[in-house]
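User: Just a sanity check before I run the rest of the batch. Below are the structure tokens for the first item. I only need the designed sequence back.
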């Protein structure tokens, strides 16, 4: 049996290739939008992709199921309750599929969404009994799936289903069962996930705090008091996956290289200028009203989905021209197809044209401590989650979680008062400060290193 876990960097997504090289057949579970990797795996092992399975209608990434179906002729399978309008074969609890020496059995495990399923995997060269389970967004390594995506009207029902799937359906399975989730560290479909890509049911029962509650009431309180932020992109991604996402558009890169004047024209017509340089470079100088999401340590796609409204035109400011094609692919994974191009030559080309720039100040933890004990101390806005804020914060800080700041139409701080933006590490503070500045907030500074640096004083 062939079994490969494929990680999508920047989203915390896992997809899977399962098959039998002897029989020459392969299935793909939860494919990402750019499908070349699955075609390559099949080609390398002389297999044909015959099945495409979705564990549920995804909210955090656009599925590649339609492109893969067109490329291979394979059918797409999803649970019978999924509200999809594209042509799909429906799954039901207990359905079983044979792929040579591999079998996959469907287990309906609602809770994250009503249509969520898991797959029990058997390697018939070893045993008829399943040894692995693909849990989708039901159970992660160190956490469980969020139940709020179907909407507030269904939240009570979804929490109950999530509890039943975790505490009753999975409890029928042995400790040795290997767990392979659809998400890992970095995903906003849960939080507190481990960096480990897989686990076992036994180890999760021993260590996962969400599997340790004595009853439903305690579980419900814990789930509802700690829901992750919901990116603005989730609703449009769900819609795309219900309708069957269109093919990824092809690009002639020469048409996407933009001058500073081109950027100005797009911006005047409503395009968002998305600057993906590191936060310190952005702070030193940037295009007025641009939004910064620091990609210097790799893509942070969930934060683009949080900061940029879906459907808008986007122009990019990049650290290097040759990043454009790769970053476009990453943005397409979360449904941002309307990328108009990038500032050719980077930010230096903007400065060489003599265009207006803005800047953001950074303040060290030691300097801030001194300022807070002196005359005219700055105001403090902490954009961490309420839970993070309750665990560690600076005296006098006001908690405005970043999702609240993003949703506000006007600046929530006094534009005439010096304000320091704070988060746990400094990353979210950089995003929040760029958004506040675009809302005409002045006199902003960012706490360098965030609360980590503050606590290390």
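Assistant: Here's the designed sequence for the first item:
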């Amino acid at each position: 049996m062939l079994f490969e876990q494929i990680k999508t960097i920047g989203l915390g997504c896992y997809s899977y290739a399962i098959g039998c090289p002897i029989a020459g057949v392969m299935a793909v579970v939860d494919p990402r939008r750019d499908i070349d990797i699955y075609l390559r795996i099949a080609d390398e092992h002389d297999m044909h992709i015959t099945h495409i399975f979705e564990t549920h209608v995804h909210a955090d990434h656009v599925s590649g199921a339609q492109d893969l179906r067109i490329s291979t002729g394979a059918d797409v399978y999803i649970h019978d309750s999924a509200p999809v309008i594209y042509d799909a074969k429906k799954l039901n609890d207990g359905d079983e599929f044979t792929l040579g020496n591999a079998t996959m059995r469907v287990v309906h495990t609602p809770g994250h969404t009503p249509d969520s399923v898991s797959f029990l995997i058997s390697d018939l060269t070893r045993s008829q009994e399943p040894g692995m389970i693909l849990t989708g967004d039901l159970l992660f390594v160190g956490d469980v799936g969020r139940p709020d995506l179907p909407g507030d009207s269904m939240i009570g029902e979804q929490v109950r289903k999530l509890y039943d799937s975790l505490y009753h359906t999975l409890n029928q399975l042995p400790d040795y069962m290997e767990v392979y989730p659809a998400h890992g560290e970095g995903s906003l479909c849960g939080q507190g996930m481990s960096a480990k890509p897989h686990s076992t049911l036994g180890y999760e029962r021993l260590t996962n705090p969400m599997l340790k509650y004595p009853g439903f009431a305690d579980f419900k309180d814990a789930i509802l008091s700690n829901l992750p932020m919901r990116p603005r992109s989730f609703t449009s991604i769900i819609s795309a996956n219900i309708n069957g996402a269109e093919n990824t558009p092809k690009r002639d890169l020469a048409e996407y290289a933009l001058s500073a004047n081109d950027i100005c024209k797009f911006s005047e017509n409503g395009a968002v200028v998305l600057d993906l340089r590191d936060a310190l470079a952005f702070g030193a100088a940037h295009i007025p009203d641009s939004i910064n999401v620091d990609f210097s340590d790799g893509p942070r796609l969930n934060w683009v989905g949080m900061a940029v409204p879906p459907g808008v035109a986007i122009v990019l400011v990049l650290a290097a021209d040759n990043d454009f094609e790769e970053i476009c692919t990453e943005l397409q994974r979360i449904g941002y197809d309307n990328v108009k191009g990038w500032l050719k030559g980077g930010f230096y080309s903007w400065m060489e044209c003599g265009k207006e720039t803005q800047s953001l100040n950074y303040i060290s933890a030691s300097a801030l401590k001194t300022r807070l004990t002196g005359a005219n101390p700055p105001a403090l806005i902490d954009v961490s989650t309420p839970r993070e804020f309750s665990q560690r914060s600076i005296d006098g800080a006001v908690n405005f979680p970043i999702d609240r700041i993003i949703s506000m139409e006007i600046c929530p701080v006094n534009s005439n008062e010096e304000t320091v933006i704070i988060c746990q590490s400094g990353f979210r503070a950089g995003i929040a400060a760029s958004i506040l500045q675009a809302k005409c907030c002045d006199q902003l500074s960012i706490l360098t290193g965030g609360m980590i640096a503050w606590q290390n004083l």
